[in-house]
């Protein structure tokens, strides 16, 4: 499974949740959103070996 955030890419094993994968690469799960095939996915989604997940930073303002 491939995890992409900005210019960084990580290769991980499938079978873990989105949240676990984000933590494994050292990012804060509360600070990013995960997209698979351009569709937002839940942090409890189990990832498959062939998934490509793009992470985007959460932006808030006021």
Topology at a glance:
Layout lengths: L1 E4 L2 E4 L6 H7 L7 E5 L2 E3 L10 E6 L5
Parallel strand pairs: 1-5
Antiparallel strand pairs: 1-2, 3-4, 3-5
Observed structural traits:
5 strands, mainly beta, Ubiquitin-like (UB roll), 1 helix, 5-stranded mixed beta sheet, 62 residues, globular, single chain, 35% strand, 11% helix
Describe this protein's structure.
- The chain has 62 residues and is mainly β.
- It has one domain (2-57): Ubiquitin-like (UB roll), CATH 3.10.20.90.
- 11% of the residues lie in helices and 35% in strands.
- It has 1 helix and 5 strands, in the order E-E-H-E-E-E.
- A 5-stranded mixed beta sheet has the order 2-1-5-3-4, covered by helices on one side.
- A hairpin with a 2-residue loop joins strand 1 and strand 2 (8-11).
- The mean pLDDT is 96.
